[in-house]
Write a structure and sequence with these properties.
This protein is mostly helical. It has ten helices and no strands. The chain is globular, with a radius of gyration of 17 Å. Bound molecules: 2-acetamido-2-deoxy-beta-D-glucopyranose. InterPro entries: Saposin-like, SaposinB_dom. This is Saposin B-type domain-containing protein.
């Protein structure tokens, strides 16, 4: 993706690094195949918690503003919208219990269907970066984008008290998220080492 540049990555990475050493250690103790799905959802839940933390939201907001708003019809309006809404939308998505299961069930990961050994016995820096990169791919994918857009336009966000007007909210989600989610997902891949340090105490 050509519109990702170093400064946007830096914004996200700095946001991530701000929380280094506050991450929870994620320990693995030789689980059987049957537990692969649970391993994956537990791990992704930890990542999701981080992605909706104050420091991460600040980095994500900058990333989306720099990477997306200049290409839209109303860049200033876009920036205001992202400032006002990204954090709320990210919290709705990553704060939902089902999000981790959906991510782990995606074809990119396959853990909850194909029981790929996401963590078992292989957990370490490389495996961590691989999983985080795959989560980024799921978020950036066409299916991931569509699922997220539909989720946000529904009861969980646009039709909830978080949004003043469901129609306007849905238009905003349609205008922003199909462009923002691929950039966001890709940036998670690029920041995978910092995320593994921060969230899982790996790659130290
Ligand atoms: C939402 O905003 C639209 C467009 O401004 C307006 O037509 C509609 O009446 C609003 N709906 C509510 C419930 O306020």
């Amino acid at each position: 993706m050509t519109f990702l540049n170093n400064s946007t990555l830096l914004a996200l990475t700095v946001g991530c690094l701000a929380l280094v050493n506050h991450g929870l250690a994620f320990s693995i103790t030789g689980k059987a195949d049957d537990d692969a799905c649970q391993d994956c959802t537990d791990g992704v839940t930890q990542l999701n918690k981080y992605l909706m933390s104050e420091a991460a939201i600040a980095g994500e907001t900058e990333l989306i503003k720099v990477a997306i708003c200049p290409d839209l019809d109303d860049p200033k309006g876009c920036e205001k919208g992202v400032d006002a809404w990204w954090g709320k939308m990210a919290t709705a998505v990553f704060g939902d219990d089902k999000t981790a299961t959906e991510i782990c069930s995606a074809s990119e990961i396959g853990a909850c269907k194909a029981r790929l050994p996401v963590y078992q016995g292989k957990w370490g820096c490389d495996e961590c970066k691989r999983l985080v990169g795959l989560v980024g791919k799921v978020i950036a994918s066409d299916d991931g984008t569509k699922t997220t857009v539909d989720f946000l336009k529904g009861d969980a966000f646009c039709k909830s008290s978080a949004s003043p007007n469901a129609t306007v909210c849905a238009q905003y989600v349609d205008a922003l998220m199909p462009a923002a989610l691929p950039v966001f997902g890709e940036s998670i891949g690029f920041a995978s080492e910092a995320l593994c340090q921060t969230v899982y105490a790996q790659c130290q």
